[in-house]
Design brief:
Helix 5 packs parallel to helix 6. The chain has 11 helices and 6 strands. The strands form 2 sheets. Strands 2-5-1-6 form a 4-stranded parallel β-sheet, with helices on both faces. Strands 3-4 form a two-stranded antiparallel ribbon. It is globular, with a radius of gyration of 24 Å. The N terminus is likely disordered. The longest helix has 17 residues. The protein has 277 residues and is α/β, with parallel strands linked by helices.
Length: 277
């Protein structure tokens, strides 16, 4: 991202007959402010840009789909630390290869950091299935990747090639969340929808008195607060399984984020380790 997006070029260079040329002190101050904004926003320095370009030129692809120069730069930017200070946003019109680029970034990060844990999400279930399919086609095995599904999702709606990565309740013929969480704790890559990722977060228990309690006498104390529901307790226990196994993720990827609401996209980011990509 060019620093010219932060302030007009005249303010940065002090050239021309504009405001920067007439007041060099103001131009210098503006340049300092722009540099500070660039640092806080995670913009690449000239040295980092050179590193990214060199890595992109010699990048050995993990996937079977070739990437153009812009896509290689995006993958290299992630590998060089893009997305630490702020989320790294990859945007473009439909059909320009955004998902392919994200998948390649995941594969490259996995190769560079073999012991890392990666979370791949999308707002729609089928979009998450596409991520799982692409990673599977690139050679990620069932011993490395787990596809989590909400038990309320019909099994028939899932892509057939993702089913080997899913966990089922054989008796009910549905997806199993509790077994899925245990399997996710053992896998290095977890794929799910953004709302399903929210099920991995601990849910706060309510301490407010229930509206169904009998009306108390004036001045009488409230009855003891009700305990958390059994379903909430079960969910927290299952989420603890994932977190206790190093469940926080080193890399979090959200595909099709523009198709989801902001709270949906923020859910998987809550599962990221501090200062992760």
């Amino acid at each position: 991202v060019s620093r010219r997006l932060l302030l007009p070029p005249d303010l940065l260079t002090g050239g021309g007959g504009g405001f920067g040329g007439q007041q060099p002190a103001a131009a210098a101050a503006a340049a300092a402010i722009s540099a500070e904004l660039a640092t806080s926003s995670g913009l690449a320095s000239p040295q980092k840009q050179q590193e990214i370009m060199s890595l992109a030129a010699g990048l050995s692809l993990c996937g079977s789909v070739p990437l153009n120069h812009a896509q290689r730069l995006a993958v290299s930017s992630v590998l060089c630390g893009g997305g630490v200070a702020a989320p790294y946003v990859l945007f473009g019109p439909p059909g320009t290869g955004k998902t392919v680029t994200l998948v390649e970034a995941v594969l490259q990060y996995r190769r560079l950091h073999p012991r890392s844990r990666i979370l791949c999400c999308a707002p729609a279930n089928y979009s998450a299935d596409l991520l799982c399919s692409a990673l599977a086609a690139a050679g990620v095995g069932v011993d490395e990747m787990c596809k989590l599904n909400d038990p309320r999702r019909p099994v028939t709606q899932a892509k057939q090639d993702t089913l080997p990565y899913c966990v089922f309740n054989e008796g009910l013929q549905t997806f199993s969340l509790d077994k899925g969480l245990r399997e996710a704790a053992r896998r290095s890559i977890v794929v799910c929808s953004t709302t399903t990722a929210g099920l991995l977060l601990p849910q706060p228990s309510s301490t407010r008195p229930s509206a169904a309690l009998p009306i108390r006498k004036p001045g009488a104390p409230y009855p003891p607060a009700t305990a958390a529901s059994s379903s909430n307790w079960w969910q927290q226990q299952m989420a603890a399984v994932l977190r206790s196994a190093g469940g926080l993720f080193d890399l979090v990827v959200v595909d099709e984020s523009g198709q989801g609401l902001a709270p949906e996209v923020l859910l998987p980011l809550r599962l990221a380790k501090p200062q992760v990509r």
